[in-house]
Write a structure and sequence with these properties.
The structure holds 2 protein chains of 2 kinds. Chain A is an alpha/beta fold. Chain A has helices at 19-26, 63-71, 103-113, 118-132, 147-158, 177-192, 204-210, 228-253; strands spanning 4-15, 35-47, 52-57, 78-83, 87-90, 165-168, 196-200, 213-218, 221-226, 260-261, 266-275, 283-285, 289-298, 302-313, 318-323, 331-334, 339-347, 353-363, 370-384. Chain A has 8 helices and 19 strands. Classes of the chains: A alpha/beta, B mainly alpha. At the A-B interface, helix 1 and helix 3 of A face helix 2, helix 6 and helix 12 of B.
């Protein structure tokens, strides 16, 4: 039996020449909307108990509209949603908390908002208090809480009663890791008992480790529904395409985003990252060997050429940089029209995160003397942890361990 | 209609706790707490009474007490404050609660019910305070006061009907929220709360007579100041109007529900 059946669902926002025309429609006057803007169209899928479904898509693809309709706050314009059971959302943790009231009073209020009566709440109260683990603060006004404490209470109420469908937003990654583990345990427990999880995230790692199915929304329709790996690969292809075009647009409007400078005797043609099999990649598993390929074109005769690159983390901190001068791979006496390709092979011994590569073409050991071309943010890539043990930090330094007692 | 009632019943715990929280949250950090709810309207009455009865030497026909004017004012205020509070809060209700309505699923009808409940509670406290003041001024409670229960219901119906219509409209046409407080002010001065009916000039009597709050406020005066039974015939016209407005309000509320969150 399906928990959730979505059949040809569509949502449009209607605009009228005047809001009074909208109001006239309530009184059955025949007024046509001046414009209909469809944000979702022809969405159909069904969900079985115990599934964990990742919902992915770019901003504006319609994810939150879809979730709001499943939650029931938005009404579909066409099609139908059939839900067999209760839907709970951990979308907005602490929604409706009143800062002047105590945690306990807010729990009563929030659970009441979820539709539970006083007896049911009373019964669950001890459990909620115990799960939140905030001690005596539970009877203090919420304004005295840290945001983490508020989140603990909010999560405890939201999951005090097992729902048939649980909607989880990225909000879940807030809070300390102890509580994160605890809340994930609870979510997994729910899943075992038959709760279906709908998870919205941009984080490939989260989707792949939590979900057994993914649905990709693009432009208001489902364009892929299947195994998380497949769907995420497809999604990344779309993102890559989009990023390239936006970078181009950005370059025109605001040159500071991607800094390009240099005298132009040599220019950078392309920068790309490949895996061991030689395929273009954007997501690299920790520790995998990769190859950074940079093609440069010589525009005028130059006596000497050095190619350098620098890997930076998302905050712009240098992680690693070197150049062909230090690597003893100098090229001399280059002629105009020549094309040079460099391949830098290295293992991606980097921590999980997003990185950028800056590249430079120059003479001698540094770009200060003669700079042919310097390009910031020439390439972006992500490091993800699929197969290695859990670790934190910028670098992958795998230890061996000996334990004595 | 039945659906509305059953969902209200299911969410009764939420309605009650919302009304209580409303009260707690308003006064929890002030030293005098709930007293402010009584001090505020009484201070207003005191100001009006002082200025109008002493400075302007207004006299009420048919009553000799020195404090007659203060009594008259308080009786009118009791009716008007309930009326104005419900309309004022319903007006911005859906906009204020927009965030909640966008994120959570719950019967929307609970929102106006909470407003009515919490306004009624305020009105009850005001009434009790007023009884104390009345006793101090030498006016003892009488059995006619039981009529107030019916009259309060009439005020609630009228205010909730108007408030629901305006609250729904305000979501889509935000000018409503700006213009209504002004109109309420005008309405207040077209209702004999501050002044006695006798000073209304002849040519304006018709206008004031068409005011649905006029029979209500007059009935409050009859009961609280003069200790006599209200003129029910006039009140019934207002009640009929109130029920009509309530039905229109509920109809508009239902018709707007699918689109309301879109516009918030």
């Amino acid at each position: 039996m399906s928990l959730l059946v979505i059949d040809n669902l569509g949502k449009s926002y209607r605009t009228y020449r005047s809001e009074w025309q909208r109001i006239a429609r309530w009184f059955f006057l025949p007024v046509k909307p001046s414009e209909e803007h469809w944000v979702l169209k022809h969405i159909s899928f069904s969900v079985l108990p115990g599934e964990a479904i990742g919902i992915v898509g770019q901003n504006g693809a319609g994810k939150s509209t879809l979730l709001k309709m499943i939650t029931g706050t938005l009404h579909p314009t066409e099609g139908a949603i059939q839900i067999n059971g209760r839907v709970a959302a951990i979308l907005e943790l602490g929604m409706g908390f009143n800062p002047e009231l105590t945690g306990r009073q807010n729990v009563y209020h929030a659970a009441g908002l979820m539709g539970f009566n006083t007896d049911e709440i009373k019964q669950a109260m001890g459990e909620i208090e115990a799960f939140a683990e905030i001690g005596d603060y539970f009877d203090e006004p919420v304004r005295m809480y840290s945001s983490g404490m508020q989140m603990r209470v909010a999560f405890s109420v939201a999951t005090a009663f097992r729902p048939e469908i649980l909607i989880i937003d990225e909000a879940l990654s807030v809070g300390d890791s102890y509580f994160q583990h605890k809340s994930f345990d609870r979510i997994r427990e729910f899943q075992k008992q038959g709760t279906t999880l709908l998870i919205v995230s941009h984080d490939r790692g989260a989707i792949q480790s939590l979900c057994n199915r993914a649905i990709l929304l693009e432009g208001g329709t489902v364009i892929k529904d299947g195994k998380p790996e497949e769907v995420m690969d497809f999604y990344n292809a779309i993102i890559a395409e989009k990023e390239n075009t936006t970078v181009k647009i950005r370059k025109i409007e605001d040159g500071s985003v991607q800094t390009c400078s240099g005298s132009g005797e040599a220019s950078i043609e392309s920068v790309s990252l490949h895996n061991a099999a030689g395929e273009l990649v954007e997501f690299i598993p920790v520790g995998e060997p990769v190859s950074l390929r940079i093609r440069a074109k010589i525009n005028r005769d130059i006596p000497e050429l050095v190619m350098g690159y620098m890997i930076k983390d998302r905050l712009g901190q240098s992680v690693f940089g070197t150049n062909t001068h230090y690597l003893d791979c100098k090229l001399e006496a280059l002629r105009a029209g020549e094309v040079v390709e460099y391949r830098f092979g290295f293992p991606a011994n980097l921590g999980v995160g997003s990185y950028s590569v800056a590249v430079a073409l120059h003479a001698t050991h540094s770009h200060i003397a003669r700079n042919y071309e310097w390009r910031d943010l020439a390439l972006l890539f992500n490091v993800i942890n699929i197969s290695r043990e859990e670790f934190v930090g910028l670098a992958w330094i795998p230890p061996s361990v000996e334990c004595c007692r | 209609m039945l659906g509305i009632l059953s969902s209200l019943w299911q969410y009764r715990g939420f309605v009650v706790s919302s009304i209580r929280n409303d009260l707690i949250a308003r006064f929890v950090r002030s030293r005098l707490g709930g007293l402010w709810m009584i001090i505020n309207p009484l201070a207003q009455v005191a100001i009006y009474a002082l200025i109008l009865s002493n400075v302007l030497a207004a006299k009420l026909p048919g009553i000799e007490s020195k404090y007659a004017y203060a009594l008259y004012l308080m009786a009118g205020m009791l009716a008007w404050s309930l009326f104005a509070e419900i309309i004022g809060r319903c007006l911005t209700l859906f906009i204020d609660q927009g965030n909640l309505m966008k994120k959570m699923r719950f019967p929307r009808i609970t929102l106006p019910v909470i407003v009515v409940g919490s306004s009624l509670l305020n009105n009850l406290l005001l009434f009790i305070a007023m009884l104390v003041v009345f006793a101090v001024l030498g006016q003892t409670p009488n059995f006619q006061m039981f009529w107030l229960i019916l009259l309060t219901l009439a005020v609630v119906a009228l205010a909730a009907g108007i408030g629901l219509i305006l609250g729904v409209l305000n979501v889509f046409v935000r000018d409503i929220g700006q213009v209504i407080p002004i109109l309420l002010q005008v309405w207040f001065w077209f209702t004999p709360v501050v002044y006695p009916v006798s000073i209304i000039p002849e040519e304006l009597k018709g206008t004031v007579g068409a005011n649905p709050m006029y029979p209500i406020v007059t009935a409050y005066h009859d009961i609280l100041v003069y200790g006599k039974a209200p003129d029910l015939q006039q009140v019934l016209i207002t009640v009929a109007l109130a029920i009509g407005l309530m039905l229109i309000g509920l109809f508009m509320f239902r018709r707007s529900t699918p689109e309301m969150v879109d516009a918030l």
